[in-house]
Structures are given as structure tokens and as C-alpha cells.
Amino acid sequence: MVKLILKHLGKPESLISFVQDRPGHDRRYATDAGKIQRELGWRPQHAFERGIAETIQWYQQNESWWKRIVSGEYQQYYKMMYEKR
Q: Of 54, 59, 76, 83, which has the fewest beta carbons less than 10 angstroms from its beta carbon?
């Protein structure tokens, strides 16, 4: 996943840093849409790689939206609106 994201961003894999696993950390992650396909007939509209590429593009085009989240600016809004409730 990380390598795919870096590829779409045009960044080198040398940016990847490995950290020590925490106790109880899963050794393997896998998704299986079999149950939702069997029971609900759901199918993805896009292949995973296309979906991740479109997601990355959206974040690149909507930087002003996510920058406020990363900066913590939204916390000031909630404090102002809800602190006295």
C-alpha cells in the first residue's frame, strides 16, 4: 500500500521507515470482499489501484480542506461553538 501511494506521488521508496511492531500487532492484513459480494451482491466500481489514484488526486486538489484538519484549526471551532454547552 505504501509503495503504491509513493509511486502515485512520484516519491522514492527510501521514504519508508519501519518501526517495531507493538505487542499483539497483526502480522498480516488482507481484505476479502467475498461475504459482502455473496450476501449483498456488492461489487466495487473501480479496481483498487484506480481508486487509490483517484483518492490521492482528490487530496491533492483539495489541500485547503485537509490542511485545516492537520493544523488543528477545527479544534478551535469546536471549542468556540461547544465549550459552554
A: 83
* DSSP letter, residue 21: P
- CB 12, CB 2: distance < 8 Å: no
Q: What does the domain layout of the chain look like in residue ranges?
A: 45-85
> Rounded to whole angstroms, how far apart are CA atoms 41 and 36?
7
As a whole number of angstroms, the distance between CA 85 and CA 82 comes to 5
| Side chain identity at residue 60, one-letter code | Q
The predicted-structure confidence for 35-74, as pLDDT tens digits, reads as follows 999 999 999 899 999 999 999 999 999 998 888 888 888 7
Residue pair 42/36 in contact (Cβ under 8 Å)? The answer is: yes
